[in-house]
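Notebook entry, structure prediction.
Reason for the run: the old model in the group folder had no record of what sequence produced it. Starting over properly, with the input documented here first.
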Amino acid sequence: PRQVYALTMWSVELRPGGWYYGDTYRQPPSEFRGPYSSLISVCLMVARELVKEVIRRRQRMEATHAAE
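New structure, fully documented this time:
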């Protein structure tokens, strides 16, 4: 079956000390993670977070189907 994931929104911010990122809806900017030296580095970190989210959702879905 087709699986589509609407993923959470992430914010990336350039500050004087470097790049920071965080979950737009769950974290205030003061809790963003960083600093990262480049935009590429911070985007890779966001990509890792997105992969973790997809894995969590797949595991929940598989557990639900296994219980049926």
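Summary: The mean pLDDT is 92.
The old model has been moved to the deprecated folder.
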